[in-house]
Every structure is written in C-alpha cells, then in structure tokens.
C-alpha cells in the first residue's frame, strides 16, 4: 500500500461536467468525462484520505472507499459543495462547470415552429463554486484546475489569485491526446512562488503526483 500521506484528512472533490436544462428533454453541457476527478478520488482514498466526490453526470464507477454525491446542474453542485465544504480539510475543484445556464427552463418541450428559422437562447451566469470556497473564512486548502488553449500560464496564475486558490493545475487542452476525455494528461502546477511540471502520463499516476504536492503544500500551509 502507498504511504498514507493523506491519513486523517477529509477531502472534497468535484468532477465531471454539469448539465444545464433547457426543457424536459434538452440540456447544455460539455465534453468532460470526469476521468481526472475520479482518478484523484481513487488516489486520495489510497493515500488514506476520507474522500467525498461530488460528481456531475458521468459513466464512471465510484472508486473503492469513496463517498459519491451525484448532481446534474452547476447550482446543484454548488449547493452540494457548500453544504459539506466546512467539514473538509482540502477541496479540489476538478469539475468542468458550465459558466452559463439557460435563463428559463421551459416546463414543456420547446417546439419547432414553421415561421421561425432562428432561435435566441438567453443565458445567465452560474455560481463560481471554487471562488465561493476560496472566499470562505477558514477555507480548506483549495486546489483548482485550468483548461486553456492559449496563454496557459498567464490564465492559470490569474485564476490562482482571483479565486483565492492555494494551488492550480493547468493543462493545455489544445494538445492532442491530453486533457478532456483523454486517458493521459500533463499538468503544470502553480502555487504562490513556485511551480512544478508533471509530464504526460496516465491520469491515475498524474493524480498521485499531484496529491503528493497537495499533501506537502497542505502541511506547510498548516505548519505552526
Ligand atoms: O474560470 P475557469 O472555469 O477556467 O476555472 C476553472 C476552475 O474553476 C476549475 O477548478 C473549476 O472546477 C472551477 N469552477 C467552478 N465553478 C464554476 C466555474 C469553474 O468551481 N462555475
């Protein structure tokens, strides 16, 4: 068994996409598979953490020893996190939360009409879950993800500061074979004053390396 570097720590994670309903049969979503978040949940449980995984709709099985809470929308994910986060030492926001949701959910299926070739959807901003966690007094050690296609470092550092994160893991989703839906990924991890490159590997190995850094930084941040 791996060294129990997260023994005694409670870790809350979000994973997967969110689904934003338009009507009873349609929604807006994204291509997140949940693989990175589920790999982190599995690895954290192996390292001895007590893990709660708040998951959007995915087709993955719950890792051994992990408590799973299923949600669909960003608002549901936000509520599920805020209800539980004060009982946790570490929060990792791995979910690809939809930034906007339809302003109204139609109670009936939206009908196609003969006289209209165009339709305009009005969207409203969703709550930023990790920023809400980052704004808490006595917040847990908070880790975010940034999926970018250009200016990866600049956007990651901006998010680290703006969302009051302790650490951010950035991936370049424009590179083939990594990021969304892929089995492999590469990350650059940033925190105040330093960084670490985690080279391309399978998501479970990457999760273990990221959690080694998290355990290390968590302990320095909590040291007297
Ligand atoms: O700003 P951006 O969406 O790129 O930030 C990504 C980070 O913020 C991820 O950790 C993601 O889980 C989190 N996030 C969130 N709630 C949102 C949007 C993003 O928790 N509404």
Automatic annotation (TrEMBL):
Please specify the portion of the entire protein covered by the chain, as first and last position out of its full length. Answer: 181 to 404 of 408
Catalytic activity reported: N-[(R)-4-phosphopantothenoyl]-L-cysteine + H(+) = (R)-4'-phosphopantetheine + CO2; (R)-4'-phosphopantothenate + L-cysteine + CTP = N-[(R)-4-phosphopantothenoyl]-L-cysteine + CMP + diphosphate + H(+)
- Which cofactors are required for activity? Mg(2+); FMN
Q: What name does UniProt use for this protein? A: Coenzyme A biosynthesis bifunctional protein CoaBC
List the top taxonomic levels of the source: Bacteria, Pseudomonadati, Pseudomonadota, Gammaproteobacteria, Aeromonadales
Q: Binding residues for CTP, per the UniProt record?
A: 93-95, 99, 109, 127-130, 145, 159, 163
Q: Which residue range or ranges hold the DNA/pantothenate metabolism flavoprotein C-terminal domain? A: 6-216
Q: Which pathway features in its UniProt record?
A: Cofactor biosynthesis; coenzyme A biosynthesis; CoA from (R)-pantothenate: step 3/5; Cofactor biosynthesis; coenzyme A biosynthesis; CoA from (R)-pantothenate: step 2/5
Q: Does the keyword Lyase apply?
A: yes
Write down the species.
Aeromonas simiae
């Amino acid at each position: 068994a791996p060294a129990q570097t997260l023994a005694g720590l409670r870790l809350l994670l979000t994973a997967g996409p969110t689904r934003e309903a338009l009507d009873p049969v349609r929604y807006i979503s994204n291509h997140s598979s949940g693989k990175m978040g589920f790999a982190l949940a599995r690895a954290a449980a192996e390292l001895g953490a007590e893990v709660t995984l708040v998951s959007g709709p995915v087709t993955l099985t719950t890792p051994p020893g992990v408590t799973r809470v299923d949600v669909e929308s960003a608002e549901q994910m936000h509520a599920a996190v805020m209800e539980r986060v004060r009982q946790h030492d570490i929060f990792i926001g791995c979910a690809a939360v939809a930034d906007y949701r339809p302003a109204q959910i139609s109670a009936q299926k939206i009908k196609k009409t003969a006289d209209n070739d165009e339709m305009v959807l009005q969207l409203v901003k969703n709550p930023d879950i990790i920023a809400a966690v980052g704004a808490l007094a006595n917040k847990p050690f908070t880790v975010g993800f940034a999926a970018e296609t250009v200016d990866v470092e600049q956007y990651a550092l901006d998010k680290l500061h703006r969302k009051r994160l302790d650490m951010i893991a950035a991936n370049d989703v424009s590179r083939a074979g990594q990021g969304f839906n892929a089995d492999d990924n590469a990350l650059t991890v940033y925190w105040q004053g330093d960084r670490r490159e985690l080279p391309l590997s399978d998501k479970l190995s990457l999760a273990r390396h990221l959690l080694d850094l998290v355990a290390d930084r968590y302990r320095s941040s909590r040291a007297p």
